[in-house]
Design brief:
Elements (H helix, E strand, L loop, with lengths): L1 H18 L6 H13 L17 E3 L9 E10 L4 E10 L4 E3 L12 E3 L4 E4 L13 E3 L4 E4 L13 E3 L4 E5 L12 E3 L4 E3 L14 E3 L6 E3 L12 E5 L2 E3 L14 E5 L7 E2 L11 E5 L3 E3 L13 E3 L4 E2 L15 E3 L8 E2 L1 H4 L4 E3 L7 E2 L9 E2 L33 E5 L4 E3 L2 E6 L6 E6 L4 E6 L11 E3 L14 E4 L3 E6 L5 E9 L18 E5 L2 E7 L1 H5 L6 E9 L4 E6 L17 E2 L1 E6 L10 H24 L8 H9 L2 E2 L2 H8 L7 E4 L4 E6 L5 E6 L7 H14 L8 E7 L2 E7 L6 H6 L10 H21 L4 E2 L8 E3 L5 E3 L6 E2 L6 E2 L12 H6 L1 E2 L2 H16 L15 H11 L16 H15 L4
Parallel strand pairs: 3-5, 4-6, 5-7, 6-8, 7-9, 8-10, 9-11, 10-12, 11-13, 13-15, 14-16, 15-17, 17-19, 18-20, 19-21, 20-22, 21-23, 23-25, 24-26, 25-27, 28-30, 43-47
Antiparallel strand pairs: 1-2, 2-3, 28-42, 29-30, 31-32, 32-35, 33-34, 34-41, 35-40, 36-39, 36-42, 37-38, 37-40, 44-45, 45-46, 46-48, 47-48, 49-52, 50-51, 53-54
């Protein structure tokens, strides 16, 4: 009896235990197992008892850690007997595979955090509208495609984090229905279009970020509805200013980061007076003008103030030292003036005032630990000495230029690589730093602090032990979070070969999230941006692979400057926070000329120079007495201020054989153009302005000012000028193959056989030249007379745009009515020809006509296949309607061309010329 009693009690106890067991429903177990089966490295073994202990399974650590593997359950169902998974944290687990749609079948899931993994595929549409999901975090994966509109139906969603993926397409307007949404992070994707108007309804937002996308259009004024916002990031997009006045309504804002706005219209400093809780204020490269406002003094919590690359004027405000929490002040590349106060020189925190126009300072050097003063003063305000030259614009040489090549191992030590001796560059600082190596005649300037990781290094190493082939300098690099300049100092004027070596060494080469970073930055040499949106990994074909970019540049004032700039694009938190910005491994600067002083001692050179100067002065005095030198009027002073090369009339006459008609090679916008050979053998082109020109010297000065300020591989280079008596001359580089018009439809003996790749290269070259004029140069310029005769071809048949005599400067307005129509009939946009309505789209129209001529080999104004067609363009539209557009292709090409490329080029040409594209 006792044994039976014990068995009965045991059975009852077992029954009670089983009846109180906390079990996951079988259908949910199947869903979890299906998810595990689809994702590599997850390796779940889920049973109905997985939540029985501690309400979940996986790691028992703080979910805020960067690496987490944890699933938690809510077991408060059916008298605490049933459990449902309510949160999944799989952070930095290197999980791979296609995003499982089964996540949408977890009907009680509130939090799904898959941050930093290797998951690909598209976002699922499977989350039901009544889903309990409140937090969806997918930062740092390989998700692609558009955001499904169904995401906007998850009514309970409070946090949507999709940063650092490969999502694309327009943002769905349905996201504006997420009335509970607090955090919306969309940075480092490929979104296009504009921010939907429906986003104005997201009145509970506290954090909105969309850095580094291709979103365009103006910053919407409805951001003023986001009155609960703490952080707003709009860095590196294609959006345009001005910053809307409604931003003043965001009184809870603590972080505001808006950078690199597009467009050409300047704006006053936005009204942020009520935003007194600001901790980080970044308004970089936003075309802001005027003084720094006094109300910033009320932002007592301000830690970082970045107003660099704007057009700010006036002095550095005296209230700056009173901002007790301020650690970082970046004001580089503005037009600040006045005196640099002593408090700045003794500032205990980081401050960058480089590239401004200060007129007075007690600074005796640029070598200050936390204050960057490189190129901070106007040229006339500081003496050029060995210690203060770096305060002046362009860092002029304080001594004698030295003929030498320069090799820098960026971020590494000195050493011999490939037969060249590289100097070391191991300085670890870079927040607001100017480092001068006077004995080696070079320097670097670095600006910025890494977001999310203030302690990040400015020197990178091969931390993932990548197998890197090539020179050892690829094992290290210098990097910067914003702006990095290298200078070759005291270099003889002339042409140099610049080689920039890059290798990405901060990402891994495996199939983990550490390989998913995208570093994107711009590269300029001598003020010209050669590389925009440069991505080392894409160019080199992978991480740990070296890539070299070479440029031929001119040095005119003894300094060769290389500038690398982060424009807010790419990822900023892969593999860790603060990994982004320019990175460079090594630099070479090599003269493309021989040492002009070889074999002569310094004393002999000095004697020759002194004697020559005395003789020249004597000759000038005699000529002035004889009245043979023109007076120094306003025009001459303007020319001197431009620092354009000056040639004497005697030189030019000798070069052109006294303007011999046999040397005439064309007719420019103002007069004839002659070929000339200078005494040193250099071949030049001389444009002789017509004496009948009504514009005269003033127009001449305008042309010099514009052309001398512009340097681009697809623009004709201006060497200098000559003004003597009534002679107004421009001296250009000589273009061996004359004009595109002569190459395409000149006389038979003048025409060139242009194969299809060459025609494509010419089209692309013209487009790049126009893109520089319209968007990339400091001044926005409309050419107004793009045609085949104004496109010249060099020895290698590279296209270069010429004749800026009719160009219209358009510095602040996108559109305007021109008072004087200029251009050529047949190439002029209709709105410009008929109404004088001028925008850069007039050049786009003209480009379309020229592209049509390049493909067809026929002149738009001279070819008439039928009497009823005035222009080739008219015939092209008819052929397009008939579906026979390829009939336009130049018959001389035969079948040696790509029909697909030809069709694309012709379609583009007609799109450019379409009044309603």
């Amino acid at each position: 009896m006792r044994l039976i009693h014990v068995l009965v009690l045991g059975f009852v106890a077992l029954h009670v235990f089983e009846s109180n067991a906390q079990l996951i429903p079988q259908d949910e177990v199947k869903v979890l197992q299906a998810i595990s089966d689809k994702l590599e490295n997850l390796n779940w073994t889920v049973t109905e008892h997985s939540c029985a202990e501690d309400g979940g399974f996986g790691d028992r650590i703080n979910i805020r850690n960067d690496t987490v593997r944890n699933v938690s359950c809510d077991c408060n169902f059916q008298n605490n007997t049933v459990c449902h998974v309510d949160s999944i944290f799989l952070k930095a687990q290197n999980i791979a595979g296609v995003f499982p749609s089964e996540f949408g079948n977890l009907t009680h899931l509130k939090v799904l955090d898959l941050t930093r993994n290797y998951i690909n595929g598209s976002l699922p549409k499977s989350f039901p509208p009544n889903a309990t999901l409140t937090n969806l975090l997918l930062l740092g994966n390989r998700l692609s495609g558009p955001i499904p509109s169904e995401i906007g139906d998850i009514a309970n969603l409070e946090e949507l984090v999709l940063d650092c993926n490969q999502l694309e397409g327009p943002l769905p307007s349905s996201l504006g229905n997420l009335s509970n949404l607090k955090r919306l992070l969309l940075s480092a994707n490929n979104f296009t279009g504009t921010i939907p108007e429906t986003f104005g309804k997201l009145e509970n937002l506290t954090d909105f970020r969309i850095d580094g996308s291709s979103l365009s259009g103006p910053i919407p004024s409805f951001i003023g509805n986001w009155t609960k916002l703490n952080r707003l990031d709009l860095q590196g997009t294609n959006m345009e200013g001005p910053i809307p006045s409604t931003i003043s309504q965001l009184k809870l804002l603590t972080n505001l980061r808006i950078t690199d706005l597009k467009g050409s219209a300047t704006m006053n400093f936005p009204d942020l007076e009520e935003l007194k809780n600001m901790e980080r204020l970044e308004l970089r490269n936003c075309l802001i003008k005027g003084d720094i406002p006094d109300y910033i003094a009320q932002m007592s919590y301000l830690d970082t103030l970045d107003l660099s690359f704007n057009m700010l004027t006036g002095p550095v405000p005296d209230f700056i030292p009173n901002l007790g929490k301020l650690d970082y002040l970046f004001l580089t590349n503005n037009s600040l003036s006045g005196e640099i106060q002593d408090w700045i020189l003794s500032f205990k925190h980081n401050i960058d005032l480089s590239y401004n126009n200060f007129t007075k300072s007690s600074a005796s050097s640029c070598q200050l630990s936390d204050v960057n003063l490189a190129s901070s003063h106007s040229s006339s305000s500081v003496a050029t000495t060995a210690s203060t030259f770096c305060l002046k614009r362009n860092l002029p040489c304080a001594g004698q230029p030295q003929y030498k090549s320069l090799f820098i191992n960026c971020g590494g030590g000195e050493g011999e690589f490939e037969g060249n001796n590289y100097v070391g560059d191991l300085h670890l600082n870079g927040i607001s730093n100017f480092d001068l190596r006077s004995e080696e005649q070079w320097a670097y300037s670095s600006t910025g602090v890494f977001m999310g990781n203030y302690s990040a290094n400015y020197v990178a190493e091969n931390v993932f032990s990548l197998n890197i082939s090539g020179p050892e300098y690829y094992q290290n690099a210098r990097l910067s979070p914003m702006s990095l300049n290298y200078y070759g100092l005291c270099m003889p004027n002339g042409n140099y070969k610049v080689k920039l070596h890059f290798a990405e060494i901060m990402y891994s080469d495996d199939q983990t999230y550490r390989s998913l970073g995208r570093r994107i930055f711009d590269v300029s040499v001598q003020g010209f941006r050669y590389l925009q949106d440069f991505n080392i990994v894409e160019e080199a074909g992978g991480v740990g692979k070296g890539i070299t970019k070479e440029f031929d540049v001119d040095v005119h004032d003894g300094t060769l400057e290389i500038h690398l700039y982060w424009a807010g694009k790419g990822t900023t938190s892969i593999p860790d926070r603060g990994v982004y910005g320019p990175l460079i491994s090594a630099i070479e600067m090599i003269p493309n000329f021989e040492n002009p002083s070889k074999g002569l001692s310094a004393g002999v050179i000095a004697g020759i120079v002194a004697a020559s100067c005395g003789f020249v002065i004597l000759i000038l005095v005699v000529l002035w007495k004889m009245g043979l030198l023109c007076r120094k009027d306003t025009t001459d002073r303007e020319l001197l201020d431009m620092k354009t090369g000056y040639y004497s009339l005697r030189q030019i006459k000798g070069a052109t054989n006294n303007f011999d008609p046999a040397n005439k090679i064309g007719e420019g916008g103002f007069g004839p153009v002659y070929k000339g050979v200078l005494s040193d053998g250099d071949v030049i082109a001389v444009k002789q302005l017509s004496s009948k020109s009504k514009q005269g010297n003033r127009e001449f000065v305008n042309e010099i000012g514009m052309i001398s300020a512009l340097q681009h591989p697809n623009l004709v280079k201006l060497y200098g000028c000559c003004i003597e008596g009534n002679q107004l001359l421009l001296i250009y580089e000589y273009m061996e193959n004359n004009s595109l018009a002569r190459a395409l439809f000149g006389e038979e003996e003048q025409k060139l056989h242009l194969d299809w790749p060459t025609r494509m290269k010419i089209c692309v070259g013209i487009a790049r030249g126009l893109a520089y004029l319209h968007e990339e140069s400091r001044l926005k310029i409309v050419h107004r007379d793009i045609k085949a005769t104004n496109v010249l071809l060099d020895r290698d048949l590279n296209a270069k745009i010429s004749d800026f005599g009719l160009a219209k400067l358009d510095e602040e307005e996108n559109t305007h009515i021109s008072t004087r129509i200029a251009g050529t009939i047949g190439y002029m946009a209709p709105e410009y020809a008929m109404r004088g309505y001028l925008t850069d789209k007039a050049d786009v129209y003209s480009f379309g006509v020229v592209a049509l001529e390049i493909v067809s080999g026929k002149s738009n104004t001279k070819y008439r296949p039928k009497e009823e067609f005035v222009y080739l363009l008219d015939w092209a539209y008819v052929l397009q309607e008939q579906g026979n557009l390829l009939e336009l292709v130049d018959p001389s090409l035969g079948s040696k061309y790509s029909q697909e490329e030809a069709m694309r080029m012709l379609s583009l040409a007609l799109l450019c010329t379409n009044p309603s594209p």
